[in-house]
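Minutes, project check-in
Item: structure for the 75-residue chain
Input as provided by the requester:
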Amino acid sequence: MHFHPANAGTDGEIDTAEFLSAVGTFLATGSAFASVGVIVLRHNPHIAWTTMIMAGWIVGVAMQIIAGAIARFRR
């Protein structure tokens, strides 16, 4: 029996599309979670917090769109 390591065939580099997709999903999900938390807890956050939540969502979604374009371009 011959076993291959888990990363056989990889060159150790991070795939750009996968990285952008993962970080974008994290940012968009974190922003959505924060938004729902503000609504459920009936807080009135400072405009700076609202802007940070909005920016996190916009950047996260943009990263996901760019990742999709990169993956589609590779095909």
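Outcome recorded: The helical segments are 16-40, 47-74.
No further action items on this chain.
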